[in-house]
């Protein structure tokens, strides 16, 4: 293990873990500091009665190539970690019922086949969806100037029912930002990687366990077995600089020296650490300009024989947006209801929200009994707000201070605030550090 260049990673979320794995795998000694008592950041393990669940329901797709590569690197096998399902979208509402199955044709023909044979769309709506999809493919899923997703859909004459039943739910699910303000450029990047390259990229990967078991725990084991160090409950309070070179960090009264410090923390935390240093104040202001969007997850425990026909169901015209059946995770009868973005539900007390969500599920599944237990998790800063023009705000991994780096899904990856975006940022940051060292 090479300790000639001491490296500190601040933050034990998926970006920080990915940075540490990539550096450790190349023989570098890393000290990872995490302020919480567990790893995982926004995808961490929480107790729910006798079960372990995630602090928010996350969904993987097979296009998450860097996440899958890193999992393989630390010894995880895809078929042991995930159940792979061909994409099947089902969305139901009072006046809406859409079912879309992607076929086995090569990309992007599988999407065209799915739209052509979708149930719940009129012939006109199918034709408009196909024209739009063909335009996206021929343009390389690129948009020269950014606009909102709503403006993009309007420019391509997407009917109101199609927008409400398909495009808006997809936008909110992938960008966690309402279509009226969401970046079309980032949305198209997601559509390209999901539908425009390989057919299998659109496959769903359902974790067989909570995500704390799927990645953070094995990542910690890999990092420590490789000779690096992870310290939990270790909050960094100050960056140490000499002129314009990073020299280490402070944890209260304790100081640690380092040649490289990676801030793998959310923008608002990074801003606090950067702000005291005059030369870093422009970057601090840049990080302070990020807005955030919430995600609310409601876990409902039904009897174990309660289940849905599909692993997930979209709901239209309700507070509930997506329902996930966690039977696949080895938790029969447990449903995770996800509400992305802002809304009146953020001001509701938990009991009222549970009652409303339970009533909405009862409309779709009248034979289900009442849930025996529930838990509501509100992440007010779940993701950065992926607004129009967001790509101009996102920083790179490098900073103006030598040895100081940034990693996180908010950096310039081109991806929205997903776990894949966090992993890509961490890997990208590690490679740039290695290039500088070498």
Question: What does this protein structure show overall?
Answer:
It is a single chain. The chain has 438 residues and is of the alpha/beta class. The chain folds into three domains: 2-51 and 62-79 and 210-290 and 389-437, FAD/NAD(P)-binding domain (3-Layer(bba) Sandwich); 102-202, protoporphyrinogen ix oxidase, domain 3, CATH 1.10.3110; 292-384, Polyamine Oxidase, Chain A, domain 2 (Alpha-Beta Complex). The protein has helices at 14-25, 65-73, 78-81, 109-116, 123-138, 149-155, 160-175, 184-195, 211-214, 216-225, 267-274, 281-288, 350-364, 390-393, 419-437, and strands at 2-10, 28-33, 45-48, 51-54, 60-61, 82-85, 88-93, 97-101, 204-207, 229-231, 238-242, 245-251, 254-257, 260-263, 292-301, 312-316, 322-325, 334-340, 373-384, 404-406. The strands form five sheets. Strands 8-7-16-17-18-15-19 form a seven-stranded mixed beta sheet, sandwiched between helices. Strands 10-2-1-14-20 form a five-stranded parallel beta sheet, covered by helices on one side. A three-stranded antiparallel beta sheet has the order 5-9-6. α1 packs parallel to α10 and α1 packs parallel to α15. The two termini are 15 Å apart. The mean pLDDT is 93.
